[in-house]
Amino acid sequence: MDGHHQLIGHVRRGPRPGPTVAALLLAVVPLAFLGVFFLLPLGGMLTRGFVPDGQLDLGAVGDVLGRSRTARVVGFTLGISTLATAVTLALGLPTAFALHRLAIPGADALRALVIMPFVMPAVVVGVLWRGLLASSGPLGWLGLDGSWVAILLAMVFFNVAVVVRTVGAAWDGLDPRTAEAAAALGAPPLHVLRTVLLPALRPAILSAASVVFLFCSTAFGVVLTLGGLRYATIETEIYFLTTSLLDLQGAAVLSVLQLVAVVALLWVTERARRAGRGVRRRGRRESRRLPLRRHHLPALAVLGAVIALILAPLLGGLARSLRRGGEWTLANYADLALAQPGVGVSGWQALGTSWRIAVDAALLSVVLGLLVSLAVTRRPRSRTGRSLLAGLDAAFMLPLGVSAVTIGFGFLITLDRPPLDLRSSPVLIPIAQAMVALPLVVRTIAPVLRHVDPRQGEAAATLGAGPLRRWVTVELPVLWRPLLAAVGFALAVSLGEFGATSFLIRPDDPTMPVLVYRLIGRPGAAEQGTAMAAAVVLAAVTVAVMALVERLRISSVGAF
């Protein structure tokens, strides 16, 4: 009788949807969100550029690409991004080795310090480096203020964390027995590194290099703050063409050029990630940290240089925020409580606005990111299904590389009529920031889900558990910490978002990054000091959020 009832139950439930169908069902809402709040604004911006009068006009492509300024902008973008990627790898790889393989006292604290710059607001980083290298700053004697070297240093400051997290996580996962066997056979350390470790780490290194190049080529706040009009990347040129010249055709051409480059980089990153899955991993046992030896001194020296690179702008900015008129004072911080001239709100009000928007954006991005992660980590048996999910995964990475300026301006020109008349709605800014944070949330949650043993879910299904019950009993117990980490990561990213927010925010209710950018552009010493104090406060808030995330010890945070 029991078997009869079970058979009836199975008949009533009907066949369960396959992994591919289930993934598509999970992705319906995120895909709709991506379509409305990414593809529609992007398409609107491109339409304004290429179909200005209702007729397709591709003549602007040759005109824009033929401009001497465009050639300089593209050349500088490629040059500075390539150089920054090379320097970041040169510093990041020895740092990853030192922090993940050597028995260094306080390694956990040092890892947290190295990761910290990645989530700092770009405008804040630009302001801190500008204060450090200005003629009146601690390193003003170097004469680097307003130079391309300042932009390079800021890019490396930002992205060394990507290399350390990506390659460090791969290094932790390697099976140490191969290297130990080579060493036992008499191979010197450099030979082991060259012949055993680097080939195994090549996918992670390639993935990290691709992501660093992507972030450098799409840097906005740093280049805008440190480069001005003298040094422009494609991202800042789109901003200049859109806001100052209203040259939407030029902005559209550069946006398409950037999008093509981003798709190519995402393809390289995905290939590297797939190659990394085939690398032999260690078991559950912890790999032993290596005792410090004399031949480790070069790696330790590079680690010291990276720590100095990170601390210099932070300490320099803190010192500048405590000085006014040549004297040590807290006046700059006291002025944060006053309504700022030309803005009408205080620094603390701007921080409150940033926090409210960031909370909404973080919750939205985590809900959508969880659905996307559950979808792209399904395990279809067919090659077509796997390709479909890989394409779905790549689609949600596109917002990482498309200009936030393009999306922000696209919001204004497409979401201005019913049924999506949201141009004056306060929900538009959290939505824009959630779009920026969504790819990072997916990259935090999805790797954890991929490591869940599918046999546990199959065993639960055999015992009669439905999809929801299987998710609650199998995946949720390993997901709650990554979910908390994703919330913190999204909060930190949203707090510092500047590109799209600068278009959408009301002039009389700015976020903290927008306020910092406005103040740093004013000539008065009081405004400059207040901008530095606001930058330090915003940096402290984002760092505090990420410090809590780091305590969760989720290796996928910040690793791509």
TrEMBL record:
Transmembrane segments annotated in the record for this chain: 21-40, 73-97, 109-129, 149-168, 204-228, 248-268, 297-319, 355-376, 388-415, 427-446, 478-505, 525-549
Tell me the membrane topology, using the record's own terms: Multi-pass membrane protein
The places in or outside the cell where this protein is found are: Cell inner membrane; Cell membrane
Keyword presence, Cell membrane: yes
Where it mainly occurs, coarsely classed, is membrane
- List the InterPro entries: MetI-like, MetI-like_sf
Indicate whether Transmembrane appears among the record's keywords: yes
Annotated ABC transmembrane type-1 domain residues: 74-269, 351-549
Give an example GO biological process. Answer: transmembrane transport
Q: Which GO terms describe its cellular component?
A: plasma membrane
Q: Cite the entry's keywords alphabetically.
A: Cell inner membrane, Cell membrane, Membrane, Transmembrane, Transmembrane helix, Transport
Q: Which Pfam families match?
A: BPD_transp_1
What family name appears in the similarity comment?
Answer: Belongs to the binding-protein-dependent transport system permease family.
> Which named protein is this?
Thiamine transport system permease protein
